[in-house]
Design a protein that fits this description.
Structural class: alpha/beta
Catalytic activity: tRNA(Tyr) + L-tyrosine + ATP = L-tyrosyl-tRNA(Tyr) + AMP + diphosphate + H(+)
Subunit structure: Homodimer.
Function: Catalyzes the attachment of tyrosine to tRNA(Tyr) in a two-step reaction: tyrosine is first activated by ATP to form Tyr-AMP and then transferred to the acceptor end of tRNA(Tyr).
CATH superfamily of the largest domain: HUPs
EC number: 6.1.1.1
Pfam family, one: SYY_C-terminal
Shape: globular
Oligomer: single chain
Radius of gyration: 24 Å
Number of strands: 13
CATH topology of the largest domain: Rossmann fold
Strand content: 5-15%
Helix content: 40-55%
CATH class of the largest domain: Alpha Beta
Length: 410
């Protein structure tokens, strides 16, 4: 099966501007394509995962990835999917995040001569002359059309700043720059990027003419993949210091039954023939599929050794519950204790098992919290210092484990 047909079979393609042209380019290994990553945190997260896997698949088929770090657009922040203005980052924070992104990307993408290249739009955006830019580039955009774009429509309800309004123009300019300087003929993005990507293609037509425009392709990645990432954004990171390999393994091990085959198709490199054989799996075999998914993705992100350790730790924890050495642990400061104990509600929040005290109370009332093997019966329950000194295992629902221990040096 050719690579474009495989992408479609895996459910990775939602929409393209010219299917025959993209099929010819990627199947022939002639695509020089880019995907952008704004450095909004100091680690990539699961929301980036599908894009990285897509780049890897296309590179393996002979195509050339251009990884674009948003060191310039990061000064603004993409308004897509947002209901408020992003926090402003300092230039040093942006540069640090870009450096960390690059190190993580090297696990997925092969950089080097005649291979993938990594560029940072800070190199051309930060030195732009504002008056020249708005005369040469701003004049190519219709405000009426921009306001109809999905990326802005939601923000209009809560207030779209002029700062954010510039984002589409800058992202479009990125494609123009990459096309002129690197021969980039294709751009990929998630479902919330369609308007921005079409803006880039139209800018190429306005500035370089119909021949250049005809050489460019825009591919929209399947919205389902973006949704999977958004549900975990900010919670499941690719940096092992922020999300341990065990936590990463457990995240994928606990995906919903309805999503497991979808995740395997989109995110793993298992042959499609094998995945089709798994399509009818039910019951315990569905759990087997979840473990296959969890191991494959943990190996891809953290390596074979860490994936093996995470799988072994998961088996040990769920087999007899005795080995809790790999589960995430929170040290509880002495100052959090009152009269030598801590309320379970406060403990759940400190361990990030609940978003708030009200969320913690709801979990307890629903019977979904266990300390050791005992269900927490009341929102007024407290844990004494002695139990925390020894360390306690907390279970939220059936599969979410955490450990709390009193901080040393008290």
């Amino acid at each position: 099966m050719e690579i474009y047909e495989e992408l479609k079979s895996r459910g990775l393609v939602a929409q393209v501007t010219d299917e025959e042209q993209i099929r010819e380019l990627v199947n022939g290994g002639k695509a020089t394509f880019y995907i952008g990553f704004d450095p909004t945190a100091d680690s990539l997260h699961v929301g980036h995962f599908m894009a990285l896997c897509l780049m890897k698949r296309l590179q393996m088929a002979g195509n050339k990835p251009v990884v674009l770090l948003g060191g310039g657009t990061g000064y603004i922040g993409d308004p897509s999917g947002r209901t408020d203005l992003r926090n402003m980052m300092t230039p040093e924070t942006i540069r640090n995040n870009c450096r960390r992104f690059k190190r993580q990307m090297e696990r997925f993408i092969e950089f080097g001569e005649d291979k993938a290249i990594l560029v940072d739009n800070a190199d051309w955006l930060l030195d732009l002359n504002h008056m020249e830019f708005i005369r040469e580039i701003g004049a190519c955009f219709s405000v009426n059309n921009m306001l109809r774009a999905e990326c802005y429509r939601h923000r209009m309800e809560t207030g779209l700043s002029f700062l954010e309004f510039n984002y589409m123009v800058l992202q479009s300019y990125d494609f123009l720059h990459l096309h002129k300087h690197y021969g980039c003929n294709m751009q990929f993005g998630g479902d919330d990027q369609w308007s921005n990507m079409l803006g880039g293609r139209e800018l190429i037509r306005r500035k370089l003419g119909e021949d250049a425009y005809a050489m460019t392709i825009t591919l929209l990645m399947n919205a389902e993949g973006s949704k999977m990432g958004k549900t975990a954004r900010g919670a499941v990171w690719l940096d092992p210091e922020k999300t341990t390999p065990f936590e990463f393994f457990q995240y994928w091990r606990n995906v919903a039954d309805a999503d497991v085959l979808k995740c395997i198709r989109m995110l793993t490199f298992l042959p499609l023939e094998r995945i089709e054989e798994m399509d009818g799996w039910e019951g315990s075999r569905l759990n087997e599929a979840k473990e296959i998914l969890a191991y494959a993705l943990t190996e891809l992100v953290h390596g074979e050794e860490e994936a093996g350790k995470a799988r072994a730790a998961s088996h040990a924890l769920f087999a007899d519950g005795t080995d809790d050495s790999h589960i995430p642990t929170t040290e509880i400061p002495e100052a959090q204790l009152k009269d030598g104990a801590i309320h379970v509600v406060d403990l759940l929040v400190l361990c990030e098992l609940a978003l708030s005290k009200s969320d913690a109370r709801r979990l307890v009332r629903q019977g979904g919290v266990f300390i050791g093997e005992e269900r927490v019966a009341s929102i007024d329950s407290r844990l004494e210092r002695g139990r925390l000194e020894d360390g306690v295992k907390i279970r939220k629902g059936k599969k979410k484990f955490h450990k709390a221990v009193l901080a040393s040096g008290r």
